[in-house]
Amino acid sequence: MRRMERKTIQRQAIRDAIIEASRPLSPQEVLDGARGHVKNLGIATVYRTLKSLLAEGAVQAVDLPGEPPRYEPAGKHHHHHFRCRACNKVYEIDGCPKNLKRIAPRGFRVESHDLTLFGVCARCAT
Amino acid sequence: MRRMERKTIQRQAIRDAIIEASRPLSPQEVLDGARGHVKNLGIATVYRTLKSLLAEGAVQAVDLPGEPPRYEPAGKHHHHHFRCRACNKVYEIDGCPKNLKRIAPRGFRVESHDLTLFGVCARCAT
DNA sequence: AGACTATTGATAATGACTTATCAAAATTGC
DNA sequence: GCAATTTTGATAAGTCATTATCAATAGTCT
User: Fold this and answer.
1) Mean pLDDT in runs of 10 for chain A (126 residues)?
2) Dihedral angle at the C-alpha atoms of B79, A69, A56, A91, nearest 10 degrees?
3) Distance CA A50, CA A69 (A)
4) pLDDT above 90 covers what percent of chain B?
């Protein structure tokens, strides 16, 4: 019989942590979140699972300037991110400036863009 | 007598490479550029000099999503960057979208922002 | 030029993040 | 439950960019 991928509470906890978060999570944040459900979860399992979730297209990486990547569920509509310099959390931001492409020099083909806002989030600002 | 910083052809070549480039350079690109003038320049000297140029405020780091930092002369007016996925060079872009702050959620204080366009540069597109 | 000492270049070491290893534990099919 | 095989967790190892080390080199001052 053929081998198949097994369902484990670790993978489910990791999947859930990412899906239930309202913001992109770092591997460590995924670990912290998933440990709420699986006490002794290891960071290696988080990285392994992130890799397979990326491969199957369930999650996508969020690259930020000068930061290690975060991970969020795939298939979200176009959006950007905000990083709080106090708590270092990254938040999802709806909305996107118009006419971004026209600031590129003549002859440059713009295929995508990344916008990151920096500052202090509502929780840290109070 | 007090010790002072000496003028060396290495430091001058590194400084020149950064100033004369029309775009932010990676440490390796700085090395490549400066070697046009100093044949046996070492990468360690580039890093050392970048560090001191940063400390004295002559150059500033350019952080990009998922990329090691580039360096450009300090004191430029506000601008953004374009990264070519073909040659991996980063270009400076004038112009900035308006009203960026208003896409942040209520209560979030926006202090700065980074915008990166991705695509193919004019040279690679031809 | 000569002495003093900062600087350089080659490379080993570091640090942060990610991946590999492998014995023990857990899941699946029977 | 049992056998077969995948998965896990702890941690060693690997990666890549950057920094430290140190003997040799080269500015600077007299």
Assistant:
1) 81 98 97 96 98 97 97 97 97 92 95 97 92
2) -80
3) 11
4) 91
CA–CA dist B60, B64 (Å, integer)? 13
Give residue A65's identity as a one-letter amino acid code: P
Q: Distance (Å) from the C-alpha of residue B116 to the closest C-alpha of chain A? A: 5
Phi, psi of B79 (to 5 degrees): -160, 180
CATH code for residues A9-125: 1.10.10.10
Smallest CA-to-CA distance from A111 within B49, B45, B121 is with B121
Do A100 and B97 make contact, defined as CB atoms within 8 angstroms?
yes
> Mutating which of A84, A117, A120 best tests the B interface, going by the most B Cβ atoms within 10 A?
A117
Token duo for residue A56: 């199957």
Question: Domain limits of chain B?
Answer: 9-125
> Which residue do the tokens 């770092």 mark?
A26
- Residue B4: per-residue pLDDT: 75
User: How far apart are the C-alpha atoms of A30 and B126, rounded to whole Å?
Assistant: 43
